[in-house]
Structure formats: C-alpha cells, structure tokens
Design brief:
The protein has one domain: P-loop containing nucleotide triphosphate hydrolases (Rossmann fold, 3-Layer(aba) Sandwich). The chain is 54% helix and 11% strand. The chain contains 9 helices and 5 strands; from the N terminus they run E-H-E-H-H-H-H-E-H-E-H-H-E-H. The chain is globular. Residues 62-79 have low confidence and may be disordered.
C-alpha cells in the first residue's frame, strides 16, 4: 500500500484490550512507525516537565483532579500540570502527524480531527475477565488487585478523554471502527483495518 495514501491511524482502547499489540502488527505490516510510550520522551522534551511527572499524569486523570481543575480554572493565574502536559502532547501529536504513523491514546483522534488532518480511528474493547488476565500477565498493577487496577485505569482514561476531547471515550461515534478483541484476534483486526485502508485509497 502506498504510504502517501495512508491516513494517520489512531487507537483508543480499554486497558488490556490490545492497543499496543495492534499498533505493533499494523506498524510492521504497513511499514510505518507507531507511538505509545514514545510520547513520554517527546512530551518531556516539549514541555520541560520531568519524565516522572509526565508518566504519572499521562492519560491518567482522576475524577477528583478533574473537579479540582474545573473549580480552580476560574482563577486567572491557575494553570494545572495536567493542562500543560496535554498541550505539550498535543504539539507532539501534530508534529508526528506530518508523516504516516500510528498513535495510541492521548486523544490523538480528537486532536487530529480538530486540526483537519485525515485520520482513521480505531477503538478496542474486550470482556473484563480477559483484560484482568492480561493485567496479571503484564504485572503493571503492583500491589493493587488486577480487577481494581483495570477498573481504575479505564476510569482514568475515560476522565482524561472527557476533559480534553469533550466526549465519552466509549462512544462508538468517535471512531471509524470498533473491535471486540475478546472475539476477534489482533491479527484479524489488522487484516480488516488494512483492507479498509486499501478501499479508502482506491
């Protein structure tokens, strides 16, 4: 497939639904880069925040933080670290979109649509028991029970998306296609996406 005809591909996902895995497969098959954890490094460079600050707040906004930011936002001198980090990430998203690539999370689909950039947006979901099992495999939950960890990460992403994209991350109308990765394999999802992109490019 001609790289010049490939739109920017964005992937939003429930925690443990395979966003990074799909990005990896699509990246290899389409021969374009994907960005996920790379956002941290690039946002640090853009924002001047420490890496620890960006990792802590990246796509992880609690409801209490949102309420506090909304309350204090009326104070002219107030600017939250969440907002500053997001603005830096927004610049990174727009810079990366100068060439075909795949972006995971960070409200990239909303940012690119607002900027009038061609984007093909994907959402991945999966039964919670599958995602809990995946969380246990990844061992990212530390001392937190896997089921609670999955629930918390999903809620943080939902709050983050609501704050900066202005809609619900679970709303299918935000995407060109949604996949249940509990029933459709990552490989098959990639087949379908590539087929659709070829149709769009014809």
């Amino acid at each position: 497939m001609d790289k010049k005809k490939i739109p920017i591909i964005t992937i939003n996902r429930e925690y443990g639904a395979g966003g990074r895995s799909l990005a990896d497969v699509l990246s290899e098959r389409l021969q374009i880069p994907y960005y996920d954890q790379d956002f941290v490094t690039k946002t640090v460079e853009e924002s001047g925040f420490d890496k620890e600050d960006v990792e802590r707040e990246d796509e992880e906004m609690s409801r209490s933080s949102q309420i506090l930011d909304s309350f204090l936002g009326g104070i002219v001198s107030y600017s939250s670290s969440h907002d500053k980090i997001f603005e830096a990430e927004k610049k990174v998203v727009l810079q990366l979109a100068e060439n075909p690539c795949i972006m995971v999370g960070r409200c990239a689909n909303s940012i690119l649509k607002e900027a009038g950039i061609d984007v093909f947006s994907i959402y991945l979901h999966s039964p919670v028991e599958n995602r809990i099992a995946r969380a246990e495999e990844l061992k990212e939950n530390g001392d937190i029970k896997a089921d609670k960890f999955v629930e918390t990460r999903d809620e943080q992403r939902r709050t983050f998306y609501k704050q900066y994209a202005g809609s619900d991350i679970f709303d299918a109308t935000n995407y060109n296609i949604c996949f249940d990765t509990g029933r459709i394999s990552i490989s098959r999802c990639a087949d379908i996406v590539i087929g659709l992109l070829q149709d769009l490019g014809d």
